[in-house]
Amino acid sequence: MPKQSPVEIVLDRGGTEISFTVTPREKGKVEGEELDCPRWDLTVKSINQFDNPELYLHRQKGVYVLGVKPRGNARDAGLNEQDIILKIEDKDIVALDDVKALHAKSLETVKENHRLRFTVLRNGLMRQIILDFLRDYEKE
Predict the structure, then answer these.
(1) Which of its termini does the chain have fewer beta carbons within 10 Å around, N or C?
(2) pLDDT for residue 51
(3) Percent helix / strand / coil, the chain, rounded to 5
């Protein structure tokens, strides 16, 4: 079926015809992309209306915390699965590339600055969380 072109569908239910119209649209990626953030000890993922519709209701684009390591800096800071990341420091987070760039930069300067302020949306409420990633759990 062509995208964005209405199509009429007719069903026969016990001798009674029921008709309705649908308009096909492009589904997009079914599963959002993921990014592992070593030393921060978390994994983030793109919000996607098909993979996580409950988050899509709060924010249609962006990045959320897919998982935190049971023993790690993100868990110690209080970041939780399903937290939607709005900002890191003063940088708006709208895509995985934003997190990727900030993560790479933070690892380059970990000795000078090992704390980042995350602004997250959790259950409809905004919170600020300080992630201290000085400790390297993978080396312990």
Answers:
(1) C
(2) 73
(3) 20, 35, 45
Distance CA 10, CA 59 (A): 35
Task: Answer for the pair 65, 82: CB distance below 8 angstroms, yes or no.
Answer: yes
Architecture of the CATH domain 34-139: Roll (2.30)
Domain spans of the chain, in order of start:
34-139
Radius of gyration from C-alpha coordinates of the chain: 21
Q: Which residue has the tokens 């399903």?
A: 82
Task: Provide the mean pLDDT of the chain.
Answer: 90
From 33, 140, 123, select the one nearest 81 (Cα to Cα).
123
Compute CA 27 distance to the chain's CA centroid, rounded to the nearest angstrom.
18
What is the C-alpha separation between 80 and 88, in angstroms, rounded? 15
Please state the separation of Cα 13 from the chain's center in Å. Answer: 42
Query: Which residue from 36, 42, 129 is spatially nearest to 77, judged by alpha carbons?
Result: 129
Residue with tokens 């492009």: 26
How far apart, in Å, are the Cα atoms of 34 and each of 60, 65, 130, 136? 16, 10, 22, 22
